[in-house]
Write a structure and sequence with these properties.
The chain is α/β, with parallel strands linked by helices. The chain has 15 helices and ten strands. The protein starts with 11 loop residues before the first helix and ends with a helix.
Length: 347
């Protein structure tokens, strides 16, 4: 049987080790194709292990079938596993609920112990059930606040018991007050500056919560488009100290986790951005590895889109993500800047 190279997003050695260990945590993330028998299996399949040279790894059953393989009758790799059903059921319950659901209630609904269900859910989504619920509520609130209507109505519609709970839950997350978010930054002062760096002209902007924009070869008009009703202030004494830290982070990349940020995205985008900040200086990850890191190995394209939606370049180091095979991939500010950033960090 002739089988082309698989499209599995997980490194082959990692897949092989998971299959040897029959690690259930990898079920749903890839399938093992056995060329000598013509079948494909879950990583946790209890069948005897084949020889390594007869195995290829695929992102899913569809890819394995396209290569001429058939599903294993023993482990049924195309069936939705109990863990997957439990997570999908919990997500549906969280989305349908008007108020946050307790972990014990979700676990009882799925037949798991609370501790085990928490592990299963976190492994699948990258967030605990409670964090997923909070992020979903905050996302709903942000969407509602971006539309016309009462701020208070939007807060209640998102599932919060009252405005105080919304402010408490989102302190330091949205940065701006909800009313300002709804009105394009109305009443908020955003300090900004455009400075020359070794990478070219760099735009830096920040609210009193943290950096909300870092880009290259842009000017004030970019901020006016994003925050049309904000008060844009060029420079400022307090802002100058933050600006110096940002310039240092760009010119001599190191640990810049102490620099505060004021960013907002969807639940998935923010999960991707957290993973980006975990990539050590001098290292890179592929788009497939990034998707796997947030618990969504099949969402490679979505991970790339979330990577590109990053508002604060360098501080959320989207430049550290490259294509499988070593190609640089894309970069909003040009591949020349991406290449220079990677060269700086490699030294």
């Amino acid at each position: 049987m002739t089988v082309s190279m698989s499209d599995c997003p997980i490194p082959a050695d990692e897949c092989w080790n998971a299959a040897l260990a029959r690690d259930r945590t990898y079920d749903g993330r890839f399938v093992s194709g056995v060329l000598s028998t013509g079948i494909y299996c879950r990583p946790s399949c209890p069948a005897r292990h084949p020889k390594r040279e007869n195995v290829r790894f695929f992102a899913n059953g569809a890819a394995a079938r396209a290569a001429g393989l058939r599903a294993c009758l023993r482990c049924s790799p195309d069936d939705v596993s109990r863990d997957e059903r439990a997570v999908l059921s919990a997500i549906a319950a969280i989305k349908a609920a008007e108020q946050p659901l307790a972990l014990a209630a979700l676990a009882e609904e799925t037949g798991y112990s609370p501790a085990h269900f928490q592990r299963v859910f976190t492994r699948a989504t990258g967030l605990s059930p409670s964090a997923y619920g909070r992020a979903l509520m905050a996302e709903r609130a942000a969407q509602a606040l971006s539309a016309e209507g009462s701020v208070t109505d939007a807060i209640y519609a998102a599932g919060y018991s009252g405005p105080s709970r919304f402010y408490e839950a989102n302190q330091g997350r949205l940065g701006m007050a909800p009313s300002a978010w709804a009105a394009g930054g109305k009443g908020v002062a955003i300090h900004w500056a455009s400075v020359e760096t070794s990478l070219g002209a760099m735009l830096v902007a920040a609210t009193d919560k943290g950096v909300c924009r870092l880009s290259f070869n842009e000017g004030r008009e970019a901020l006016e488009a994003r925050f049309p009703n904000a008060k844009l202030v060029e420079g400022g004494e307090d802002f100058s100290n933050l600006l110096e830290e940002v310039i240092a982070a760009v010119e001599a990349p190191g640990d810049f986790s102490h620099i505060p940020l004021d960013v907002k995205g969807t639940v998935f985008q923010e999960a991707v951005w957290r993973e980006l900040r975990r990539i050590p200086k001098g290292e890179t990850r592929t788009y497939a590895e990034l998707a796997a890191a947030v618990g969504k190995p099949k969402a490679v394209r979505a991970a790339g889109s979330a990577n590109g939606a990053n508002h604060v370049s360098v501080l959320i180091p989207c430049h550290r993500v490259i294509r499988t095979g070593g190609g640089l991939g894309g970069y909003a500010w040009g591949l020349d800047i991406k290449r220079k950033l990677l060269e700086k960090e490699a030294k």
